[in-house]
Amino acid sequence: MNGFISRFLNDDCGATAIEYGLICGLIFVAILGGLNALGGSNGALYKDVMQKIADTLGR
């Protein structure tokens, strides 16, 4: 039983997978932040363009 516990505590095979998972998570958060920042500015741009089109058409 002690050999199993010793091997279990010294085994670091899953550490790499956890590190890659954390890196992917951080990249995902960065992408969401960038999309959120662009989405707000693009929304204002589209609203402005639509308002100018509506003004031009006389609506």
Note the main attributes of this structure.
59 residues, mainly alpha, 2 helices, 92% helix, rod-shaped
Describe the model:
- With about 60 residues, the chain is mainly alpha-helical.
- It has one domain.
- Helices cover about 90% and strands about 0% of the residues.
- The protein is built from two helices and no strands.
Outline of this structure?
It is built from two helices and no strands. With 59 residues, it is mainly α.
Fold topology:
Elements: H1 2-10, H2 13-57
Helix content: over 70%
Assess the beta-strand content as a share of residues.
under 5%
Helices and strands, in N-to-C order?
HH
Rounded Rg = 26 Å
- Structural classification: mainly alpha
Segments where pLDDT lies below 50 for 5+ residues? none
Backbone shape: rod-shaped
> Could you describe the largest sheet, including whether it forms a barrel?
none
Total number of helices: 2
**Integer average pLDDT:** 83
- What is the count of structural domains? 1
Total E-strand runs = 0
* Measured distance between first and last alpha carbons: 81 Å
